[in-house]
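Would you kindly consider the sequence and fold I have copied below?
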Amino acid sequence: MRCAAKIVAVTAAVVLATGCGQGRDEDPGVAGNIGVGHDLSPASFAQAVAGRISVDAVWSHMDELQRIANDHGGNRAVFSSGYDASVDMVAGRLRDAGFDVEVPEFEFEHFQIAAQRLTIDDRDVNVRALRYSPSTPDGGVAVSLAVLPSGTLGCSVADYADIDAAGRIVVVDRGQCSFTVKQQLASERGAIAVVIVNTDDELIDASLGSGPEARVPTVLTTSSEGERLREADGAATLLVDAQTSIRTSRSVVAQTKTGSATDVVVAGAHLDSVEAGPGINDNGSGVAALLETALQLGSEPGVEQAIRFAFWGAEEIGLVGSTAYVEELSPPERLDMALYLNFDMIASHNAGYFVLDGAGTEAGGPGAGPEGSAQIEALFRAYFEEIGIEADDSGLDGRSDYAPFMEAGIPVGGIFTGAEDVMTRDQAERWGGVAGSRFDPNYHTARDTLENSNRDALSRTAPAVAYAVAYYSQDIGGEYGVPGRDEREQSR
């Protein structure tokens, strides 16, 4: 689809308050305040800002996050010194650009594994306990296996029609539904533990959620180990010894000093990695693009709506930072938010091009977002169409930081280049890439590095980040509009 006010290129003749059009300062860190006193249309202003986003500058932010991970044990997980250094880096860059920066604190559950072991037929099986898995009794449990047939994914009660799970360890393949749902259904059928078989020979960092969602000890094993489990006889012994403690961490939030504070455009990206690796695509890529957008706009740009840039902590362990932030807002503060834009994984190695499905048109998907989400989706689709990309839907399944905003009735949107799903032949023909391979084969592993991030994809997605933020900073009505404050007050 195309917009009525067509997304148009802005030539170098457009002069902004910084004295340049699409040019850049030699130092990519601070660009000044863009667009003060401009009379550009929202589309032209947005294209001008997008034109200032250099992939070199975005890549340099990702490189800095990689160096931070290298210096702090190989990751930037929320409980680590690497995460603290990431917070300091982002907050420092924003302060240098003139922003007033807040670092709201939140509590989270820190999960640690003292021991994890599965043995069968006197042989150790390669496993990894899922985050927030309950512990087994001291010494573990020694019981027989209940193996669901291959292709029966344990996502419905009907999948257990021919399986006696009571008092046994259920073995089930990954796929279709979340790990949390799999172990809950197994628990409801009487299982005392669950082994989930991955689709390949990776042991990724995965989570059950926390609190009552995690009901029985649950571990992940590899596809080859899963084949052996299906052929095994006799009792299996599973031991999980895990501890959870309460910790405190921080997110980073900065808002422009210009624009309406009662129609705020919120744009966010999660700053933490998983414990398994440095998290440079997931999500150094989204952080870097959003940070560069903030630096290019400056703290006092010529905008109609204020822009709030948010870099969330603890997304990887349950959207904790963003959820705490939304929950702590007063009702009027929530009403001040016109929309939320989310940027999580935008430089995947085998990149696809996805737009969050605000309209809810994805077949079998989770449905539409709050009113206005479909219009945000349309804006991103129009942008990608103008640069020759036919984007696909990504359902609003609640797996990233848009979820608490969506729950609060705030319109949401965003872009994504894919994670563990496999690229189809049709997608490879449209986008390039390798059909039959995952969009990000390095997802949640130590290989999620700068070297394995996709610079070409970033050259398309990073300007899209800036375009959407800048467009809505000028106009929240019209074809791509979201409800105004009076409408929000009635609907929310």
